[in-house]
Amino acid sequence: MGGALRRLGARGSGVLVALSGGADSTVLAAVCARLAGRLGLRVEALIVDHGLRPEGGAEAALVRERARALGLEAQVH
Predict the structure, then answer these.
(1) CB 45 within 8 A of CB 67
(2) Which of 13, 35, 36, 59 would bridge 43 by S-S if both were Cys, CB 3.0 to 4.6 A apart?
(3) How far apart are the C-alpha atoms of 71 and 76, rounded to whole Å?
(4) Does the predicted model carry a pTM greater than 0.85?
(5) pLDDT tens digits, the chain, 77 residues: what are they?
């Protein structure tokens, strides 16, 4: 995984990780957050509320908190 992140850009580059709150995207975000400092990358989480379900906003807020717990800034769109 470190090699893949390293190829994304030079030190100081940014990586945006889509975070749905599911196990797979949470693990991906956690690994990226852990490697970010060592690789000199900025990692942020992206959460998308498509507005299709009434509970989407509350779910997005929970996922934002999960991102913050991982030490990631989160963008909710």
Answers:
(1) yes
(2) 36
(3) 16
(4) no
(5) 556 555 656 677 788 999 999 999 999 999 999 999 888 889 999 999 998 999 999 999 999 999 999 999 999 99
